Amino acid sequence: MKKSTIPKNARKPRSDAQRNRERILEVAKQVFTRRGAEASMDEIAKRAKIGPGTLYRHFPTRDNLLEAVYITEVEKLAAAQKRLSAELTPIKALRAWLLVFINYIAAKKIIIPALNAMAGGPSRVFEQSNQIMAEAANALASRAVASGDLRPDIDPRDFMRAIYGLSTVGSADDWPRKARKFVDIFLRGSRPDKRSR
Fold first, then answer.
1. What is the pLDDT of residue 6?
2. Rounded Cα–Cα distance for residues 13 and 184 (Å)
3. 108, 58 contact by CB (below 8 A)
4. Contact in structure between 115 and 135 (CB atoms under 8 Å)
5. Residue 110 has pLDDT above 70, yes or no
6. Distance, CA of 54 to CA of 42 (rounded, Å)
7. Cα–Cα distance between 116 and 194 in angstroms, integer?
8. Cα–Cα distance between 193 and 143 in angstroms, integer?
9. For residue 74, how many other CB atoms are within 10 A of its CB?
């Protein structure tokens, strides 16, 4: 009987490619953070322990790579929303996600100078990411409203706007701590008024 010519590890290149992509994105985030938009693509490839050809197959241009780094951070927010919704009560899930959002803003502040150097600017990337974040926040807030933990007139985008506002007026080192305290204050103030029931 003729042996199959299909290799046993036929799926391996696909998983290897995915691991390479994830490693490239993590390394690129670190390098762009340290060196800005003009960071060397060769340095990124070297630190990711891949050849330049592999890097350019995944990301043909620096802008492609910058965009992917940023979108990956946003996708982490969306994934956190799903995970926290499955694990925690509605109000605790919303609170935990807002704390993750604070970490996202901190990372964005670091990489934004590089994003601003993209050809045509980062507006298209921001538009896509804003939609992802709004959907995640709305899903969490809707659960909290349905459970009676949050007033129905609350706009979850106000939470994000307030956190972003704190990040722009606070010092680079201190604003995340203040923002975390603010989350609890904001959530307490957003609970239904028991006297109106």
1. 43
2. 46
3. no
4. no
5. yes
6. 11
7. 47
8. 18
9. 20
Distances in whole angstroms, Cα of residue 151 to Cα of each of 82, 133, 141, 180, 189: 22, 20, 9, 21, 9
Average pLDDT, the chain: 84
Please state the domain extents for the chain: 12-60, 68-191
- Alpha-carbon distance of 21 to 50, in angstroms, equals 10
Give me Rg for the CA atoms of the chain: 21
> Computed from CA positions of residues 47, 51, 54, 58, in that sequence, does the dihedral angle turn out positive or negative?
positive
Closest CA to 81 of 58, 62, 57, 100: 100
* CATH fold of the domain at 12-60: Arc Repressor Mutant, subunit A (1.10.10)
pLDDT of residue 85: 96
Place of tokens 């706007």: 161
pLDDT tens track for 24-66: 999 998 888 788 777 899 999 999 999 999 999 999 988 889 8
Q: Which residue type, as a one-letter code, is found at position 43?
A: E
Distances (CA, A) of 186 to 17, 105, 175: 43, 18, 16
Report how far residue 53's alpha carbon sits from residue 20's, in angstroms, rounded to the nearest whole number.
12
Distance CA 69, CA 92 (A): 28
- For residue 177, pLDDT over 60 is answered with yes
**Amino acid identity at 2:** K
Across 34-48, 85-99, 159-173, 177-191, which has the greatest mean pLDDT? Answer: 85-99
The domain made up of 68-191 is a member of CATH 1.10.357.10: yes
